């Protein structure tokens, strides 16, 4: 019975760790977005034309994503997980989501659609636009980390619930989430800028 | 990665497109939606449902102001993939108390307290 209690504690601690990782990653996304938007505003001001120089007027009619995310579990090479909430994903393996740069392949019969997005706004762009681009790239990478933390959070919570149910069915008393947990969550809110 | 963001000063959408996440195919289907104050709510709903139904999308980034328009959809959304993340926009800083994910976490934590 002690083993069940330890498994419940382990599942709960894994869940809380994922919550912490999620909050940390979201704080990084928020900070990177703020920095990127500030630099983008500077770029718009320096490029003039009352803001029209950096707007959707410059978007091409076709574009291909050069930054994507890869979702995989601890067994490398498992590939992208499909949309699902079933029990298959509640087996304790950690999920990793990684943002990668993937230059799309250009076939001969296609019009060239891949261009570095910064070139949409001209050849000589201000340095603030490049800094803004780096900021948003960082935001994308942090968003991928937040996504991984969220997926692991859901899976660990499902595992905790199953362990708790198993424990209660076998006579192990599983205490409710204590006030210490609430204290932990409330005090980690300060991570947001 | 899909993005749903405000157009009031274009910053959120432009920023993420600069990072290279934007895609528009030959049929003019894009992986981002620009929302302004004239955009009807059902258009945002349809875009959200279309993005979540795609099997090649892992993360959806939505500005919190756009998310507030379809909060009921986000609160009911339970899938792990694609993950929906709320991001700030220029005029609306990130508010963790409105984030559907944080609300769900707090709700779970409040179950079984003394």
Task: Tell me about this structure.
The complex is a heterodimer of chains A (193) and B (114). Chain A is mainly alpha-helical. Chain A has one domain. Chain A is 51% helix and 7% strand. Chain A has 3 helices and 2 strands, in the order αββαα. In chain A, helix 1 packs antiparallel against helix 2. Chain B has a single domain, classed as ATPase, V1 complex, subunit F (Rossmann fold, 3-Layer(aba) Sandwich), CATH 3.40.50. Chain B is globular and about 50 Å long. Chain B is an alpha/beta fold and 114 residues long. Helix content of chain B is 39%, strand content 17%. Classes of the chains: A mainly alpha (193), B alpha/beta (114).
Itemize the secondary structure elements and their pairings.
The complex is a heterodimer of chains A (193) and B (114).
Chain A: H1 2-47, E1 67-73, E2 95-101, H2 127-169, H3 179-187
Antiparallel strand pairs in A: 1-2
Helix pairs in contact in A: 1-2
Chain B: E1 2-6, H1 11-18, E2 32-35, H2 41-53, E3 59-63, H3 64-69, H4 71-76, E4 83-87, H5 100-110
Parallel strand pairs in B: 1-2, 1-3, 3-4
Family (chain B): Belongs to the V-ATPase F subunit family.
GO cellular component, one term (chain B): proton-transporting V-type ATPase, V1 domain
GO molecular function, one term (chain B): proton-transporting ATPase activity, rotational mechanism
Features:
heterodimer, A: mainly alpha, two-stranded antiparallel ribbon, 3 helices, B: 114 residues, Rossmann fold, four-stranded parallel β-sheet, 5 helices, ATPase_V1-cplx_f_g_su (chain B), transport (chain B)
